[in-house]
Design a protein that fits this description.
receptor; leucine-rich repeat; 20 strands; Leucine-rich repeat, LRR (right-handed beta-alpha superhelix); single chain
Amino acid sequence: MYGYTVSGLNSDGITLLALLRHWTSVPPSITSSWNASDSSPCSWAGVECDNAHNVMSINLSSQAISGRLGPEIGHLSQLQVLVLSYNNIFGVIPKELGNCSVLEQLDLSVNNFSGEIPDRFENLQSLLSLSLYENMLIGEIPESVFRIPHLEYVYLNNNNFNGSIPANVGNISEVLSLWLDGNQLSGTIPSSIGNCSKLEELYLNQNQLVGILPESLNNLENLAYLLVSQNSLEGRIPLGWAIARVYTSGFIVQD
């Protein structure tokens, strides 16, 4: 939609203008400040840079952006924060995003992304927070997500994910919040979940999970919220847990 003549703009700025071409609707704050005649994009709306004028952060939440996230995003090698939540961005999540190897925060929530989570997400070894909730994502949650060692926040709720919760979910031992609710997940809860010893919030409600709660849940001494309702689960709620923090409507509790 947008065409530009670029002269002295650095490579990250050129990349941002390439991303802009995939957007069919953007607010005036972007069209007025994303100026191709600048030497760098460091003063552009929603953009922050490091001292070398590399783009470190893009935060364009709630900007009424419509369009796609282009594959050019993978050219931003120093990108640490990408927040595009609460827009109207559609299409697949580009696999090239996996090239942003120093990314720490990825928030694409409340958009219209479709397709599957790219396997290349495994390359995001610095990622601390992954927010993809309230999109139209499908397929199984890939095991590669749970090979990202330092994840603290994982919000995949309210999509159309199916299949089982990957058995290696316990690999993300630093996780504090794990929200998988509002999907079509089936099978049992993996016992490896007990390895997530720092977990404070576990939301599994509104799925198609079956079987007995794994005994390894007893290891989650920091758990503040457990939501397992609207499944076909049964089992024992550990006696040490405060009942106020366990949401088990429709859940069979063993004596």
